[in-house]
């Protein structure tokens, strides 16, 4: 277990009590300002608190963090199940692995049935557990985009942002390209490289079934400008601004019914989970407007910061 103090660039979940789309923009604005203020939140072992895993919709289960109390403790992990085994999206930190395992098993699934480990992006709060998780699940294949694979295999050293926390390197077994499909047991996960937050930031799309309907689901990597991110003349990432622009264009074109992302507060996971418990007529994670609001807010934040840094 990691006992040293590290830092995270993701902020605490304060959007958790926000309700449906009516308040979505306000919630996102509040969450975003808190995210900036708490950009360098202290990461501590006691951030690991029991969280309740649950079936979100169709074959998608939430097995990640929902800890509102401690900054940086809302790293999302999703289990996507199929008849021929399962796909795990993001392990999060090493210290979360016992809980991740318990969450998966509580839902009645076996670790040994997980065939693929995919990820949102190569920051420690999403991939630091990968190396140890691979040891826990022999035969598991780690899949990543080429540019995030470099960072994962270097344990974070290859990140263009040198202030990022480092982690145990993990071997990537398969490189996935933009638009390529990962197929398993009749389920197809499509990778879309939406770079900027990291060079290989990967958004995944799939189709889920709910109440007899087929719905387009998206798992957004991230489109956030981290604090101190150099968007103009960045020697370690000259294409950063162009990549962010391309990412917003890509996200706007995606057909989205069901909205997920790499941190719980990005998609009001806690609030929607509470709503789901009351068995509403429609699953609250069906939220195309929430997705649009997320993209709009992040694009606005990008443009504001880009111009502030003298970008044209
Ligand atoms: Zn990140």
Attribute tags:
312 residues, Metallo-beta-lactamase, Chain A, disordered N terminus, 8 helices, alpha/beta, 7-stranded mixed sheet, 21% strand, 5-stranded mixed sheet, 14 strands, globular, binds zinc ion
Could you walk me through the main structural features you see in this protein, from its secondary elements to its overall organization?
With 312 residues, the protein is of the alpha/beta class. The protein has one domain: Ribonuclease Z/Hydroxyacylglutathione hydrolase-like (Metallo-beta-lactamase, Chain A), CATH 3.60.15.10. It has helices at 24-37, 97-106, 124-127, 130-136, 146-153, 240-253, 269-277, 288-308, and strands spanning 6-8, 41-43, 54-57, 60-62, 78-82, 85-89, 114-118, 141-144, 174-175, 181-184, 187-193, 202-210, 213-220, 258-261. It has a 7-stranded mixed beta sheet. The chain has a 5-stranded mixed beta sheet with strand order 10-11-12-13-14. Helix 6 (240-253) packs antiparallel against helix 8. The longest helix has 21 residues, at 288-308. 49% of the residues are buried. The protein binds zinc ion.
Please write the string of helix (H) and strand (E) elements. Answer: EHEEEEEHEHHEHEEEEEHEHH
Give the strand order, joined by hyphens, for the main sheet.
3-4-5-6-7-8-9
Mean pLDDT over the residues = 86
Structurally, the number of domains stands at 1
* Strand-residue proportion: 15-25%
Shape: globular
Give a count of the beta strands, DSSP E runs of length 2 or more: 14
What's the tally of helices? 8
Return the CATH architecture.
4-Layer Sandwich
Helix content: 25-40%
What is bound: which ligands? zinc ion
What is the CATH topology assignment?
Metallo-beta-lactamase, Chain A
Radius of gyration: 18 Å
Q: Mind telling me the CATH class?
A: Alpha Beta
Describe the largest sheet.
7 strands, mixed
Beginning-to-end CA distance, first to last residue: 46 Å
Helix-strand makeup class: alpha/beta
Low-confidence stretches: 1-43
CATH superfamily: Ribonuclease Z/Hydroxyacylglutathione hydrolase-like
